[in-house]
Structure formats: structure tokens, C-alpha cells
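Subgroup meeting minutes
Present: P.N., E.W., G.H.
Scribe: E.W.

1. P.N. recapped why we're keeping a running log of single-chain structure predictions: easier to compare across weeks, and new members can see raw inputs and outputs side by side.
2. G.H. added today's entry (260 aa).
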Amino acid sequence: MQNNFFSLQKSSLLAAASVAFASSVMLSSSAQAFSISFDSTSLSSNNPATGASAKVDFSFSQIDPNKVLLNLNLVNTTGQIPSFGKGATQATLVGFGFDLLNNISSFTYSPLSSTFTQLYGDQSLTSATVQGEAKLEPFGTFDVGIRSSGTGNFTGGNPQTGVTAGQFTNVSFTLSGSNLNAANLESAFLNGFQSGTLRAAARFQQVSGPGFSGASDKLLGGTISNGGPTSVPEPTTLVGIGLVAGAIAMSRRQQASKSA
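Output recorded in log:
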């Protein structure tokens, strides 16, 4: 009986380990990432710039052969980076606009738990209702724009629910097209932003600093940094790991019971 028990226990552990290994090898994906910092290198709608700043992290991961998930991390860096322009110390990030690659046929948008619930842009690219054009003068119109909830339009409105200095939020887009690949898409977006064929802009309101308050600003482009690939475990990988942990825990409980 003892030999049979330990053989069964060993088989369970090996099976669970095999599931975890296969899951991690076959089903894990790699997120490709880069960032755009809206800072002193950006073109401001003000002269001089107010000093409001932000960073947006782009992370791409594969969903299926024709879909890629784009996660955006929107960070308000006002007062957190070296001062420039008028030296703003407070600002509310209320909007973000960017262009899409031509091989993206459509997208869906999820504000997740953020307040960026208003979608603007090209209605032909999404089945969701857009509030209007993603226009930020003097920089023109973007393919996609998101804005924090409140009255107004993409350019202006109630800034109360935006991201304040030092805070961040996350949103996501599901990008669809023929044979989309996360790594290739990340590279194409990165090259597009670096070359200027694609544009991105951040919108700020409630900007204040030494000697001024109540200002607004828009920043186009900025410092681009390539974060490279990061490992992202899929749920099936976590299930495999959980099976291993469960098998080990069961083994310990049974051994403890036998010893008692």
C-alpha cells in the first residue's frame, strides 16, 4: 500500500508539473512595450509651455492571430520630473489622442476602472459610439482620442475626473486586423512615433505653478523609450502553477497525517 500511495503521489506531482511547464511554454505570451514622455522635448500649444507633463506606456500582447491587446498606462508626471517651461507643479491629465497604423481595420475600447470613459475619433474604425472628432488644435485631428468623464468635448470641458499630478490610470484597446502580431505591431508603432508618421498628444487642464493657475496645455510628441519585451503569464500558466502548489500541499498534509 505504501508503495502504491507514493507512486500515485509522485504521478500526481509529475502530472501537475507537466501541466505547468506545458502551459508556460506553449501558452505564455510576451508583452512588447515602449513609452512616450510628454515633457520638455514636446511641442506645446503654449509659449512657453506650462510645464505640465505625462508619460504613456504602450504594451502589446497577442490575443489571437488577428487581434492584439494594447494596454495604455497613463501617468501624470507633473512636478515629478525636472521643471521646464513655466514650472507647473499641479495639472490634471484629461485627454490622450494618438494615430493608428493602416493595417488596423478596427478596434474596441475599454476604460477599465479609469474615468477615461469618453471615446473620440474615426467612427468607421469602431462599433462603439464616439463623441466626435479627436481634435486637439493646433495639432489637428487624431484617429483615436479618450477623455475623462464630464461635460464638453475632446478639446475642453469639465476636468474634475482626470488624473492629477503623481497619479496614474490604465485603459485598453483591442486592435483587429489581418494577421496582427504583437511584436511587429509594437515595432511599427514605435517607428511611426519616432519618425513622426504617427502622432500622439496629451491634454491638460487645471494647470498651476509659481505665479499662475487655471491654465491649460496640450503637448504633442516627446521622448520615446523602448522598454522591450516583458513576460506575461496566461491564466492557464497560473492554473498549472496552482496544480503544482496544490499537489505539494496535499503531499505535506498527508505526510503530516501519517506521522501523527
